[in-house]
Amino acid sequence: MNIKTPKIFTLQEVKSALPYVKSVVSDLVSLHQQLSGMNDKKTDNYLHIRRQMELCRKELHSVGCHIKSEKGGLVAFYWKGKSGIAELYWQLGEEDIYYWKEIGKKNLNLLPNAIKKIEFSLHKLKTPSM
């Protein structure tokens, strides 16, 4: 059995991979929705959708990320944080990487760049337009 060592990303590598990952995850979520709505699991269409989903999973695996939720489009990337290996999280619909979590812990943490983006967005809301 050949066990592959997981890829450890930098934040910049994750950001570079995001456009492709967004596309694949979007397809995977759409396929998951189609599959969830099907009652007959013996049809050719059902089997075709399952194969397409497996291809999406393989594409994400080849990038080095792992799917946490096919329904919600949540993906994680292994990342070297300050206290060791952690996971960076991205979810379908988000513009950027905002969250990280220590492996084995439950709480998500905001990345410093996410805090700045949130503060900037709030500042824009408070600033009266001319």
UniProtKB/TrEMBL annotation:
Entry-linked Pfam families: DUF2203 (PF09969)
InterPro entries linked: DUF2203
Protein name: DUF2203 domain-containing protein
Species this protein is from: Uabimicrobium amorphum
